[in-house]
Amino acid sequence: MIDEAKNIRPGEEVDRDRLHEFLSKAPEDFGEILEILQFPGGFSNLTYLIKTDKQEYVLRRPPRGANIKSAHDMGREFNVLSLLYQHYKKVPKPLLYQAEDDIIGAPFYIMERVKGIILRNRPPNNNSLTPQLMQLISEASVANLVKLHQLDIYETGLVNLGKPEGYVERQVTGWIKRYINAETDNIKAAKNIMHWLPENIPDTREVSLIHNDYKYDNLVLNPEKPEEIMAVLDWEMATVGDPLMDLGTTLAYWAEANDDDLLKPFNLTWIPGNLTRDSVVETYFQQRNMAATNVLFYYVFGCFKVAVIVQQIYARYKKGFTDDPRFKHLIHVVKALLTNGEKAIQLNRISHLY
Q: Where is the Aminoglycoside phosphotransferase domain (predicted)?
């Protein structure tokens, strides 16, 4: 269950000699590069393991053919980590950022590696994820999201990461535009949701730091005590805004046992012991000492947003920017997410949609 790096996928290689030469001139003593491997998870930014004679590091860069600057801005992600690390230690320590693309063909940044358990897209063969453990992990996941949302964005300076005013409206408008720009198939559920969302935007009750991609495979767990979260990864979409938008995205990823099987690789929340989406909501709002309101909107938005992210990746595949076979059938994942959002509207609930 320890997250292991593997051989680099064809077409995504890193020039070891050029990278070593560059790092040898950096203020940080990275040491001599012994090996470069690639972490297999994820469909967005590319993540590599850099082994040196000093220690292990992680390098992140945008995918080939990406043109979505806000989602693949390495400088912004590095700045988020640099600011956040001063106030929230459950993130890898950022070390170096390179804005130019003349070293490895794209901007990149390097951070320390936090080695631990990452729950990827399938349960381990040894049946170690017991219902009791999964309940503890799911509860810890929600509790940690609450802590993130309770960080003082003004005292820490995190407020400078975005523009909280009008955040929800901008997100709805922006993600609808992104879907239209990346659209490849005529999907009725997408049309229905794009009509429903602007008409049901709730008032914002508060603003906070939001991760925007908070799910199990972005959490590093303690190998000795898996219910303990050691680090939160992938801050590429972090900003400040309505924290319930963050919760909605997490709920969209939070697959249940009766959801479409296509959605289960997102998150191992469907195996026995995990909280249901309804239980996540109940736990979150109890710990925030807040009344749960407008949850349907935030969940439907989350389903739509994640569908757009997958649609953008699928569109890159359709345009020939990548031949990664994992991307070939992503349109069916898009449809499954949109179906969940549409069913939630029809049934006026976010759990037990089937």
A: 36-268
Tokens 């470069």 -> residue: 36
Statement to judge: residues 163 and 85 lie in one domain: no
Domain extent, residue 57, equals: 16-112
CB within 8 Å of 186: residues ≥ 6 apart: none
- What is the full per-residue pLDDT of the chain (354 aa) written as tens digits? 556 777 888 888 999 999 999 999 999 999 999 999 998 765 568 999 999 999 999 999 998 755 545 556 899 999 999 999 999 989 999 999 999 999 999 999 999 999 999 998 888 777 789 999 999 999 999 999 999 999 999 999 999 999 999 999 999 999 999 999 999 999 999 999 999 999 999 999 999 999 999 999 999 999 999 999 999 999 989 999 999 999 999 999 999 999 999 999 989 999 999 999 999 999 999 999 999 999 999 999 999 999 999 999 999 888 887 777 788 899 999 999 999 999 999 999 999 998
What is the distance between the alpha carbons of residues 203 and 167, in angstroms, rounded to a whole number?
A: 11
Q: Pick the closest to residue 23 from 115, 95, 77, 76 (CA basis).
A: 95
Whole-prediction pTM: 0.90
CA distance 140 to 153: 22
Domain holding 247: CATH number? 3.90.1200.10
Local structure of residue 271 (DSSP, 8 states): S
Please tell me whether residues 46 and 172 are part of one structural domain.
no
**DSSP output for 77-142:** HHHHHHHHTTT--SSPPEEEEE--STTTSS-EEEEE---SB---SS--TT----HHHHHHHHHHHH
Give the residue from 114, 113, 133 showing the smallest Cα distance to 124: 133
Q: What length does the chain have? A: 354
